[in-house]
């Protein structure tokens, strides 16, 4: 059976339409709750969310669905996605749910599901959930005396902050460091500044006034200009940019220059390797990571293994082959010694730990390699499959030939929105730009 509702990162779409309505959320709760109810004990599900207005609607519907099939619900309120994964395990829940569309604008929302081990559900489980959803789901309803209860967990923020702090070496402090943190008006607006302050940093906060509509709006890791400007204005040592659900992070150095996920993975990989902590002799990244990262790791005797785009594929490979560092250029970094999914705050703390121990500025610590020229453009389409167009395929094949062995071309449809992403990199920036523009033009003609 092919998944119709689930994409590469749960279910996502525009709020109050398609698969992102209260009715669908209710059915997801009933189906997932039924699938994860095994045995006679009281079953429980943990639900967190980001700060989108539609989160209230979707949360209420999910609570109704889960309780109707006999599951107790623990509501966390606004919390980062990695916190939900961690608390699913900590609270010994049977299932975890995060209501978020990550870096998307407020009009979108999504539902991410985690198993009792804190890992995102596999394809087979998602297919099984979809198979249980139908027009008439009355057979799934439990007896009146077995209906579940719902309650809020007031200690969730403190639990997560303590967890994040414990990922650092004992007695690590950030005293003397001035940190600007941009929480994207999202899920980490409360926990991230507090965690940094408790570790001794002087904290200047941005994106900490969510109103239901401003998540990711001109702020956070998808729009870091305000962060970089603030770092320069207040002469901060470092800037930290999270996305809407705080599973991604980008860093800004003291000069106001952005540091992407590839550089951050290089910093952690080298630091951990020098201390005998890096597992499997390398890291796992996606096809989007810069060739410069691969060459840098090779110079250190380390390997870079690539997977398809999507943190779930990175995590699957890490688990299967024993890696403990992996991630994406976008800043979605998984440190499996601590977490089961990307964690922007934990990653930022690891980078700050390296900076604090080195005594050097962030620009010196986090510039590990010179990236090859890389250009990424998105082409939005309304219908059809532009990549199947014969003229598009011809332009793509021609682009690969022009780039040759010293370059790479990656073209893929997004798993979360109707967009085709075109990425090329190589030694010659002008050639790379021409190749991308030719493919984008062809896609636009095919999508017209």
What is the strand and helix layout of this fold?
Elements: E1 11-14, H1 22-35, E2 44-49, H2 54-68, E3 72-78, H3 81-90, E4 95-99, E5 108-114, H4 123-132, E6 150-152, H5 156-165, E7 178-182, H6 191-198, E8 202-206, H7 225-234, E9 238-242, E10 249-252, E11 258-259, H8 261-274, E12 282-286, H9 291-299, E13 303-307, H10 311-321, E14 325-327, E15 333-335, H11 344-358, H12 362-365, E16 374-380, H13 390-403, E17 408-413, E18 419-425, H14 429-447
Parallel strand pairs: 2-3, 2-4, 3-6, 7-8, 7-9, 12-13, 12-14
Antiparallel strand pairs: 1-5, 4-5, 9-10, 10-11, 14-15, 16-18, 17-18
Structure write-up:
The structure is a single chain. With 448 residues, this protein is α/β, with parallel strands linked by helices. Helix content is 36%, strand content 20%. It has three domains: 11-154, Alpha-D-Glucose-1,6-Bisphosphate, subunit A, domain 3 (Alpha-D-Glucose-1,6-Bisphosphate, Chain A, domain 3, 3-Layer(aba) Sandwich), CATH 3.40.120.10; 159-365, Alpha-D-Glucose-1,6-Bisphosphate, Chain A, domain 3 (3-Layer(aba) Sandwich); 374-447, Alpha-D-phosphohexomutase, C-terminal domain (TATA-Binding Protein, 2-Layer Sandwich). The chain has 14 helices and 18 strands. The protein has a six-stranded mixed sheet, with helices on both faces. Helix 1 (22-35) runs parallel beside helix 2 (54-68) and helix 13 runs antiparallel to helix 14.
């Amino acid at each position: 059976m092919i998944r119709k509702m689930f994409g590469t990162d749960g279910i996502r779409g525009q709020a109050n339409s398609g698969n992102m309505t209260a009715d669908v959320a209710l059915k997801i709760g009933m189906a997932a709750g039924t699938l994860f109810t095994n045995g006679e004990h009281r079953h429980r599900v943990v639900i967190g969310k980001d700060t989108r207005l539609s989160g209230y609607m979707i949360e209420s519907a999910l609570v109704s669905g889960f309780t109707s099939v006999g599951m107790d619900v623990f509501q966390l309120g606004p919390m980062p996605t990695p916190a939900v994964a961690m608390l699913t395990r900590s609270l010994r829940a049977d299932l975890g749910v995060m209501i978020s569309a990550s870096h998307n604008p407020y009009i979108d929302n999504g539902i991410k599901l985690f198993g009792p081990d804190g890992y995102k559900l596999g394809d087979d489980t998602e297919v099984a959930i979809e198979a249980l959803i139908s027009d008439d789901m009355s057979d799934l309803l439990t007896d009146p005396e077995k209906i579940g209860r719902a309650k809020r967990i007031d200690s969730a923020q403190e639990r997560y902050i303590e967890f994040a702090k414990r990922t650092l070496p004992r007695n690590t402090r950030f005293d003397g460091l001035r940190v600007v943190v941009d929480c994207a008006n999202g899920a980490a607006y409360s926990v991230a500044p507090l965690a940094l302050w408790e570790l001794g940093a002087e904290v200047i906060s941005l994106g900490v006034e969510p109103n239901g509509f401003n998540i990711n709006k001109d702020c956070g890791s998808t729009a870091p200009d305000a962060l970089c400007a603030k770092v320069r204005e207040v002469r901060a040592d470092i800037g930290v940019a999270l996305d809407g659900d705080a599973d991604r992070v980008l860093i800004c150095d003291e000069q106001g220059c952005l540091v992407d996920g590839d550089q951050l993975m290089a910093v952690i990989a080298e630091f951990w390797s020098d201390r005998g902590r890096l597992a499997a002799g390398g890291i796992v990244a996606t096809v989007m990571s810069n060739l410069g990262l691969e060459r840098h790791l090779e110079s250190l005797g380390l390997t870079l293994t690539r997977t398809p785009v999507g943190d779930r594929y990175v995590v699957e490979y890490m688990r299967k082959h024993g890696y403990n560092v992996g991630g994406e250029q976008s800043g979605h970094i998984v440190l499996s010694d601590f977490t089961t999914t990307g964690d922007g705050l934990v990653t930022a703390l690891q980078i700050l730990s390296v900076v604090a121990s080195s005594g050097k500025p962030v620009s010196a610590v986090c510039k590990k390699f010179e990236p090859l020229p890389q250009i990424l453009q998105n082409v939005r389409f309304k219908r059809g499959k532009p990549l199947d167009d014969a003229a598009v395929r011809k332009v793509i094949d021609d682009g690969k030939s022009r780039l040759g062995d010293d370059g790479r071309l990656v073209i893929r449809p997004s798993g979360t929105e109707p967009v085709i992403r075109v990425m090329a990199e190589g030694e010659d920036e002008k050639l790379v730009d021409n190749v991308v523009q030719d493919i984008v033009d062809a896609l636009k003609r095919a999508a017209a």
